[in-house]
Amino acid sequence: DEGLKALSARVVRAAPNDGTANIMRAMVLHGQYAAWEAGLRTAAELMEAATYYERSAALSPAPAVKGDRARSADSCRRLAERVDSRGV
Description:
Helix 1 packs antiparallel against helix 2 (19-30) and helix 3 packs antiparallel against helix 4. This protein has helices at 2-14, 19-30, 43-59, 63-85. It is built from four helices and no strands. It is mostly helical. The longest helix has 23 residues, at 63-85.
């Protein structure tokens, strides 16, 4: 998990205007995928994930993808609010 966080940060720094790099970073920070064991996420990580989902949406030409990524960004924000309210 920590290795993926570090790798995704490097990838997005190397290609900040690449939709795939941004979605990778968003997914890693979100941590809601069964492909790897993700640890608990902080509210700050979830808010950062929302930003990367939005960047990825902006870089996509497909309206359906834009909508899906906007919903993912909203989901991250709602989850961040719940995490923050618990003091995690």
